[in-house]
Amino acid sequence: MCALSHVERPSTTTPGLPMKIIKVLIVDEYLAVRQALASRLRAFPHIEVVATAGDFDQGLKSARTTQPDVILLELKGSGSLVSNPVGAMNKALAGHPAGIIVLTSYAEDDERKAALDAGARRYLLKHIDSARLLAEIEAVASEVTNQVS
Q1: How far apart are CA 87 and CA 78, in angstroms?
Q2: pTM of the predicted model as reported, rounded to 2 decimal places
Q3: CATH number at residue 53
Q4: Which of 35, 60, 76, 88 has the most neighbouring CB atoms within 10 Å?
Q5: How many distinct structural domains can be found in the chain?
Q6: Containing structural domain, residue 75
């Protein structure tokens, strides 16, 4: 397996120390949601939103070209006929694994179980506050890095 390729920027919290850049892809059918998430995440200097996509197929293409560390994926969209989007995304990115966080408007037990069984690292509600979302993204990026090391 290959190691994740992180860019380093100077830390804003500890001068002189490098900070790992976490590349994030956002996949959600609603433009306003994608824009809001991207805006929230760009407030953190070590998060780079590498792309946003309006449906699963576009997200898959973006994931292949941008090789994100973390993918924020909404499963309730109307843009794909894929029965197991988390599994399909993981399979397509086998050479460059990414941690998938399912962000959903409302929780469904069956969807949650299926997503986690297919390899999603988290299943979270979209109304999550920015600090918690950041913590979850950092944790997932660390899990993926440790998995491939």
Answers
A1: 18
A2: 0.84
A3: 3.40.50.2300
A4: 60
A5: 1
A6: 8-148
